[in-house]
Amino acid sequence: MERLQKVIAHAGIASRRKAEKLILEGKVKVNGNVVRELGVKVSDQDQVEVNGIPVEREEPVYYMLYKPRGVISSVKDEKGRKVVTDYFKELDKRIYPIGRLDYDTSGLLLLTNDGEFANLLMHPRYKIEKVYIVKVKGIPNKMELKQLEKGVLLEDGMTLPAKVKVKSIDKRKKTAIIELALHEGRNRQVRRMFEKIGHPVMKLKREKYAFLDLQGMNPGDIRELTPHEVKQLRALAQFGHHSL
Fold first, then answer.
1. What pLDDT digit, counting tens, does each position of 102-157 carry?
2. Does the residue 42 lie in any domain?
3. SMART domains of this UniProt entry (predicted)?
4. Beta bridge partners of 164
5. Could you give the residue numbers annotated as active site?
6. What's the whole-model pTM score?
7. Are residues 141 and 121 part of one domain?
8. In degrees, to the nearest 5, what angle opens at C-alpha 106 toward C-alphas 118 and 132?
9. CATH code where residue 45 lies
10. Which contacts of 144-153 are long-range, i.e. CB under 8 A and separated by 24 or more positions?
11. How many CB atoms within 10 Å of residue 110?
């Protein structure tokens, strides 16, 4: 179920704000009845009309992007910087990223035009594991790594337990590469966690999202998710396990 104004905006008829105005003006019908309230939600089965013209729903699409560094996880940027949707110029549908990766973070990002699916994956209640490869300044000791595993107190509260694995250490350059698996996705969380234990992040990449990984992909590559992968992600978000 999605909000009526969102469905209208998605169909490309009007912006969400304009769609709200159309609803308030009584120009929108659901199943033949005029709707004037903004909170109304509709399903795929409902017939929506704007000014007497039926709204065509877009086919849902699901993509994975290997986001390069220096790209904004957004649909547009006021400063004219490159955004993730620039990689989908050929696509005639309005898609948006599920969650975000920082400007200077690379890695796996999902994009879709399916609002319900996006909300499902982003909801903190549904614990989807994300794996990051982190290059940090200095070499964290056992105590510091243990702290990351147990949870670090950030200004917006304690982080959930994480899985931590040291991939490699460069004693000469005094850097370490660490794999970190998280079940939450607060703003700049990985960077803030390492900052907190005194090892600032030099380079950050999201390697995995649930069972999806970047195998065979280069920065800037995109691929469509298979219907089976979409089904698995849904099941994982809702029930915490893959459906076979």
1. 999 999 999 998 877 888 888 766 578 999 999 999 999 999 999 999 999 999 99
2. yes
3. S4
4. 180
5. 102
6. 0.79
7. no
8. 80
9. 3.10.290.10
10. 144/197, 144/198, 144/199, 145/178, 147/197, 148/180, 148/193, 148/194, 148/197, 152/193, 152/196, 152/197, 153/196
11. 22
